[in-house]
Design goal:
Helix content is about 65%, strand content about 0%. The protein is built from six helices and no strands. It has about 210 residues and is mainly α. Belongs to the acetate uptake transporter (AceTr) (TC 2.A.96) family.
């Protein structure tokens, strides 16, 4: 049984064959990659282009998170496997969009709308996962709520991109919410790492599940 079963982190106990908890790895890979891209999207730091996140998207947010998802499959955890594998694939697909650019020039408005459709799909998927967290804990529920809002603002930012400037007010708002999302993901990762066996204290995540009588 895994730490992300039924939308939970760091609470379930593993049974034989015993494997390490893959959730903190997946969450850290997601958090760091999201944080760097969101810093760019928010416009708070003058980063040259989203290409700065390429390495992270390929290897940490992409490969490492995808592996965490595979290990969640091994642990029999459907929610964790679906979430980590999917967002690992998201980052790999994002990296591929940066790597494999069209040979012929593309109209900026057309490219922006195409990116908006791409992000809209992920907004819907993230909202579906958010609906599956209502009986998990506040930490995980908050993570998927803010991630849904992040994707929503980024989607709107692409659909309402009026010129060749890729960062508008909506995209900046998505960047701010993305930073918040990354911080929440790191908090949940730390909550999964701080166990009674490894730490003198733990972090609360506020369980929302109904215990069976």
């Amino acid at each position: 049984m895994s730490s992300l079963e039924d939308g939970k982190l760091g609470e379930a106990k593993y049974t034989s064959p015993k494997i390490a908890n893959p959730a903190p790895l997946g969450l850290c890979g997601f958090a760091l990659t999201t944080f760097v891209l969101s810093i760019h999207n928010s416009g708070s730091v003058n980063l040259p282009a989203p290409d700065v996140v390429l390495g992270l998207a390929l290897f940490y947010g992409g490969l490492a998170q995808l592996l965490a998802g595979m290990w969640e499959f091994k642990a029999g955890n459907t929610f964790g496997a679906t979430a980590f594998s999917s967002y690992g694939a998201f980052w790999l697909s994002f990296a591929s969009l940066l790597l494999f650019k069209p040979a012929a020039p593309v109209d900026p408005a057309v490219a922006a709308h195409a990116a908006g459709i791409f992000l809209l799909g992920w907004t819907i998927f993230t909202f579906i996962l958010f609906l599956a967290t209502f009986r998990s804990n506040v930490g995980i529920m908050s993570l998927f709520f803010f991630l849904t809002v992040t994707f929503l603002f980024l989607t709107l930012g692409k659909f309402f991109q009026l010129d060749q400037t890729p960062i508008n007010g909506l995209t900046k708002a998505g960047g701010v919410f993305g930073i918040i999302t990354a911080l929440i993901a790191w908090y949940n990762a730390l909550a999964g790492l701080l166990t009674p066996e490894t730490s003198y204290f733990t972090l609360p995540t506020i369980d929302l599940s109904r215990k069976n009588n």
